[in-house]
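Write out the 3D structure for:
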Amino acid sequence: MKLCVFDFDSTLMDGETIDFLAEALGLKEKVAAITEMAMKGELDFFESLTTRVRLLEGLEVEKVDEICHNLPFMPGAKETIKELKKRDYKVVVFSGGFRNATTHAKKILGFDADFSNVLHSKDGRLTGLVGGDMMFDFSKGDMLQRLQRLLGVYKKDTVVVGDGANDRSMFKYADKRVAFCAKEILKKEANIIIDKKDLSEILTYI
């Protein structure tokens, strides 16, 4: 068995989910600035995530789902996943974003599983709290190791694809490390660099 793990925001999806959510509250620029710093590795991921989610307090869950179900996917995303599965890869998504988006995307793009975070809500509105699988800088690497042991997949049969600083932790556990339209901090740890917004480009390396 072989394993390919994708980041979601700015990798399978063209943009950052939290920035789209913040736009509904007129806070896109404020949240996007924090997101950018976090993806460059200039802020602790946990602190940046909790700070940004706190700003979403009061947003209706119905609106969250509407936004998350209409996010723009990266060119080539669906075709690339389909081809990887033909090549006997298990395709999984690790996202510091939210299950509202990744679980819906799973139905559209056809990957096998998603690990992401949950926006807490009460009485139909976000409370500004968040929890889940991908809260910390180390979360993706930690989850990848557990998944490899569970599936019996080795480093040499693992591909990881990401764009930001919080993807670094999973890079050390994969022989093929793809920096896709990525920040410089991630490019330094990649052995495949793709700067064209077309995910199908990765298939030439796999």
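The chain has a mean pLDDT of 96.
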